[in-house]
């Protein structure tokens, strides 16, 4: 245990030296592009006590990407948020993690009972250095049947259309289905593809009842 704690401290020390992790000046710009100071604040702040202006930017990122990828509008005032370095997607709980310090997780929970088709829970992994959404999951207040099924062909059509429409992979790459699993009303798909001679994959989860993608994970 002592060795693990020491290793974590060393990793943190190498990633964020004393100078770079000193309190940063607040930036005047209000764009969703993070400044160097803001990125240092996010990367080095393992206690997740972020500056309020940075928190608002991260929440705005979540809101904008909810619209971009899932076509939903979120009323930010009707959501409560958690922000951290790692999240458990199944439980929608923030779990701090010492590595991957450039990755940040934003989780939103609806306050009270949402109306039909409104967001219940939403979570996103965002790489602040690459400025890229790595993983996102949404739960909507919609009818759900755990016995609902999709044929493999229909699931693949839904998955491929989502990937193409949302431009999750470079244009022109060939997608190959590597996994197809139907479980409790959901279809789990994994596509393999090659970019610059590197093997890549993207995983999707489809809500069979509503025939919509509710999660994607880009490796």
From TrEMBL:
PROSITE patterns, sorted: PROKAR_LIPOPROTEIN
Alphabetic keyword roster: Signal
Region forming the signal peptide: 1-20
Protein name from the UniProt record: Lipoprotein
Organism lineage string: Bacteria, Bacillati, Bacillota, Clostridia, Eubacteriales
């Amino acid at each position: 245990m002592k060795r693990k704690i020491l290793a974590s401290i060393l990793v943190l020390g190498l990633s964020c030296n004393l100078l770079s992790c000193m309190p940063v000046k607040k930036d005047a710009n209000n764009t969703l592009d993070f400044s160097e100071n803001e990125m240092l604040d996010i990367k080095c702040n393992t206690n997740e006590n972020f500056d309020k202006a940075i928190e608002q930017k991260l929440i705005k990122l979540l809101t904008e990407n909810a619209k971009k990828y899932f076509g939903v509008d979120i009323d930010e005032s009707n959501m409560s948020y958690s922000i951290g370095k790692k999240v458990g997607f199944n439980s929608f709980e923030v779990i701090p993690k010492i590595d991957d310090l450039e990755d940040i997780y934003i989780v939103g929970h609806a306050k009270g009972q949402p109306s039909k088709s409104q967001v219940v829970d939403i979570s996103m992994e965002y790489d602040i250095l690459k400025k890229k959404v790595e993983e996102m999951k949404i739960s909507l207040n919609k009818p759900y049947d755990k016995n609902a099924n999709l044929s493999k062909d229909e699931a693949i059509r839904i998955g491929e259309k989502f990937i193409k429409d949302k431009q999750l992979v470079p244009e022109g790459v060939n997608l190959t289905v590597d996994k197809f699993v139907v479980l409790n009303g959901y279809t789990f798909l994994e596509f393999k593809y090659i970019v610059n001679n590197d093997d890549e994959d993207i995983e999707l989860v489809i809500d069979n009842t509503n025939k919509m993608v509710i999660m994607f994970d880009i490796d």
